[in-house]
Design brief:
It contains five helices and four strands; from the N terminus they run αβαβαβαβα. It is α+β, with helices and mostly antiparallel strands. The protein has one domain: Ribosomal protein L30/S12 (60s Ribosomal Protein L30, Chain: A, 2-Layer Sandwich), CATH 3.30.1330. It has a four-stranded mixed sheet with strand order 1-4-2-3, with helices on both faces. Helix 1 packs across helix 4 and helix 2 runs parallel beside helix 3. The relative contact order is 0.26.
Length: 104
């Protein structure tokens, strides 16, 4: 199993554990309330939304990853979404530890 598959599996586990927030407005609220520990956005997200999420993540110092498209992200979490936030430090740490780089 490669790191991308592990990443997708961990996202699915986080969702089942209730530690995954989906959708633009809910993710922005999670970032503002400082509950988000990691934000994952799809590579094919609209530019305006991408900038909004990116700027908010930077302001609140929340790590942001973007390396999978909307279809792959949606399959990983079982819902059609392009933006998710992880609200659990353990899941966030495990996902960041996989060290997946953009374009890899």
């Amino acid at each position: 199993m490669n790191d991308r598959q592990k990443f997708s599996n961990l996202l699915g586990l986080a969702r089942k554990a209730g530690k995954l927030i989906t959708g633009e407005q809910q993710v922005l609220q999670s970032i503002r309330s400082q509950k988000a520990k990691l934000v994952v956005i799809s590579t094919d997200l609209g530019m305006a939304t991408q900038k909004k999420i990116s700027d908010k993540s930077e302001t609140y110092q929340v790590p942001l990853l973007s390396f999978m498209d909307r279809l792959v992200l949606s399959q990983a979490i079982g819902q059609p979404r392009a933006v998710v936030a992880i609200e659990d430090q353990g899941f966030a740490k495990a996902l960041l530890k996989l060290n997946i780089e953009e374009g890899a």
